[in-house]
Request: fold
Amino acid sequence: MLHNYIQHKQSLLLEKQADFYTSTGLHVFFKDPVENVNVEKVIAKVESSIPNHLLSEIEMIIFGWFDEFEERSLNAFYDGGTLYISNIQDDFMDMYDDLIHEISHSLEEPHGYFLYGDKKIENEFLKKRKYVHDILWNMGYKIPLSVFMDSEYNKELDMFLYEKIGYDKLATAIAGVFITPYSITSLREYFATGFTEFYLHPDEHGFLQKVSPELYKKLVLLQNPEELDS
Reply:
């Protein structure tokens, strides 16, 4: 009975949430219903906050639940012009955060050389990684330095930081070094977390600028489409 009730409730929600196109041409599609959040208002905030040239890779946003979420412990991802966003959201800002974060990943392929070609963000990231390695080593977590000096994603390291150490303890240990514990995960997530912070708090960039100065400089330049064309 409960299963049937939930299915019926979801079908009613889905009927109310019609797919739509935004003023900039984004196609928003509902695979599964979204509760408690006004999706149109969130999308409108995204489009009003982020410069158009940084949205050019996005063609569609799909809300729903996908196998990849279970397989990769995610609640959102970007792939081939589409943002796949979980239909289960805490509130307005939770959804806004997910969208901004995944938009950042859409920029890495077309603008990878601009972002990473001069190695400034990567060098900053690895310097911080080395510092965190030393802190954790002194705390008794004997992880080889070589693991920390690889800027690519390492699932074992990711799970170790998340499950073995825990983000609460890690946040205390890295205060003032990384923006968030998740930004330690890889160079790509270091950029994405900074990009998200840049737009989540547009009038409060002091912390981001202090903690990640090279990343911040790149994010400022990213606002100018002429920088990307040069």
